[in-house]
Amino acid sequence: MFTSINPATGETVATYPELTDAEVEKKVAAAHAAFAQWRTTDLATRTALLSAIADQFETNKQRLGEIATREMGKTLKSAVAEVEKCVSGFRYYAEHGPKLLEPVEVPLAKGTGTARWLPTGVVLAIMPWNFPYWQVVRFLAPCILAGNVGLLKHASLTQGCAQAIEEMVTAAGAPQGLFANLGIPSRRVAPLIEDDRIVAVTLTGSEGAGIKVAEAAGRALKKVVLELGGSDPFVVMPSADLDAAAKAAVTGRIQNAGQSCICAKRMIVHTDIYDAFLDKFAQGMRDAKVDDPMAEDTTMGPLSSVEQRDTVLDQVATAQEKGARLLMGAEKIDRPGAWMTPGVLVDVPLDDPVAQEELFGPVAMVFRAADIDEAIRIANDVPFGLGSSVWTNEPAEQERFVRDIEAGMTAINQILASVPEAPFGGVKRSGHGRELGPWGLHEFMNLKAVLSAPETAPKDAGSAATD
């Protein structure tokens, strides 16, 4: 049984049954059968379904947003914006899909060749609670376009969101079995990965979960895409617009209550502007309105759970024990639910374990850098490499950061955000593979080479070597 608890009140929202083995088998079998039909559908049929699903999300965006806010605490405004982003994701693949799947001519010395993208089968997605709709759509939209079929193992916190997604797909007219939510706990995932009817796995989650899924997929020799944790640097140089950078840093740190893989987590500021930036940033963090996530003027709601809130507070306490100074905030709010204030840590030793971890909550670490070389060293001095944000108006510095920061993504003079058109993913212990754009579409497709003999064979064809 899954229990959905509203983190703003501590009250139970709903309970959801755990599927039995027989129920899971029925859904896997239906998905396998659906692939046999869906793989041969024309692109017009696939893109029409994507557009229809987009329509369902758009029509129901307010209701879907309210479900997410009740289940995991993000502000209603941001939850509705997330649903709108899902609409754009479905529409992107509906509009551009046929172009992304066109065969590519392969020049050959003899004969003709093409490279074609073909579907592979049933893809299992293991998704987290922090963006309960968008994380799923990042896999689902390209999955449908590719001619594949999707199964979802969603987080236990957001089973209501998972059911709502399945409802939207069904209402759009999807064939039976094309997409299904599997209400099962994490301990029941490994047998699914081993199932021959499932051809690939994609996971967004923690480093620990990624290791377990990668091990299981490796034993089964199956393709896996991993989008894991991040401790993204937010670098500010003297040429930056300081007011804009400080304002963006606040938004980047407290959006979704700091519970985003690509939130700005480590502020790395050039020494010449360090004090001025810190004053502006800390004041912005103090000014954040932490209140009812359903209210229009709330900037930050509760964290997703009391357990998640307490994990963040424990990390802050550990950092202080190692010598870091808590400049402000990071305090538990005495009210029912998973509430805390935004916080700022300074003077964090670089070898402090907390400096090497992901702070998945609204607490920032601020570091001082003497020059661009030190800023890059600090940025890279973590095991993660997901995203980064750099603030400078010097073109040469921009190029240095793009070249030398070890990350899958770099935003220049803006907050990093995922968009349907661009590849999303990281390096190092932030995972491997990419979502979104043509790259995410092609991850779970068979790139087949098609080689055709020339119309007139050369005279020495009989003695030609073959491979």
Automatic annotation (TrEMBL):
Q: Name one Pfam family in it.
A: Aldedh
| A GO term for molecular function | succinate-semialdehyde dehydrogenase (NAD+) activity
InterPro entries the record matches = Ald_DH/histidinol_DH (IPR016161), Ald_DH_C (IPR016163), Ald_DH_N (IPR016162), Aldehyde_DH_dom (IPR015590), ALDH_GabD1-like (IPR044148), GABD/Sad-like (IPR047110)
Coiled-coil ranges per UniProt: none
Q: Does the keyword Oxidoreductase apply?
A: yes
The Aldehyde dehydrogenase domain sits at 2-450
User: What are the entry keywords?
Assistant: NADP, Oxidoreductase
Domain of life (superkingdom): Bacteria
Give the protein family. Answer: Belongs to the aldehyde dehydrogenase family.
The protein here is known as NAD-dependent succinate-semialdehyde dehydrogenase
